[in-house]
Design brief:
Layout (H helix, E strand, L loop, with lengths): L7 H11 L6 E4 L2 E4 L12 H16 L4 E3 L8 H15 L9 E6 L12 H10 L18 H15 L4 E7 L1 H5 L5 H20 L3 E7 L16 H12 L5 E5 L8 H4 L2
Amino acid sequence: MISGFATSDGTKKFLKNSGINPLNFKQIQNLTLSNVGVGTYLGEADEKTDELVKNAVKQSILSGINVIDTAINYRAQKAERSVGKAISELINEGKISRDQIFISTKNGYITNDADIKQEFWEYIKSEYTQKGVIKEGDVTSGYHCMTVAYLDDQLKRSLRNLGLDCIDLMYLHNAVEGQIKDVSKEKFLENLQSVFELYEQKRKEGKIKFYGMATWECFRVSSDNPQYLSLQDTVELAKKVGGENHGFRFIQLPFNMYYDQALLAK
């Protein structure tokens, strides 16, 4: 397992060593982070794609990108493993150190493991329900689960997949989008508080540095939309759980010419 996490000094050193124009980096939470990251969503869950993703991550880092984003359900856990192999190889080659790279992943959707040749629901049954990690009613119609037991399990798996002692940023993945058809808003907020309590505990344990919410709709839509979630209220919830030094410091949402609400709907 690779120890450490992204640091102020490490990320500054990455910028210096990269030779990239400093205008392509931003100071975020006292870290020097590239304003473009590399994502790992697409691709088949096979060994050929493993190699392609690993090499793409390595080339991105060597080209001046130090923000790497993945998720446990991407390519059924293989995306995280490809990222882990890329980071490990670059460290072993002496080209980077762990403190130079900011790694985020996401938990929340139920997923199988493409490296275990087992039918999806059989895997869920043997790995989660039979072990008491998932109970009846925990999984929504959107294949989403945000119980403390499940997210605790997923964090441990993500750490193993990535080969890391600490993840810089853990996103709760599409929580509103995956839950709200089956759970009331009041119950959702109650569950969200429990998740934030879990993540604050994991920060104390040194397993994650920050947490956030990776979203598609909830921070873009108008307040009359069932999927709407107030960002201000979410920050206040984090303060309630973790105080002024809480770890809820990042959100993720689509932003492009079509999905422009992140800028225009502030």
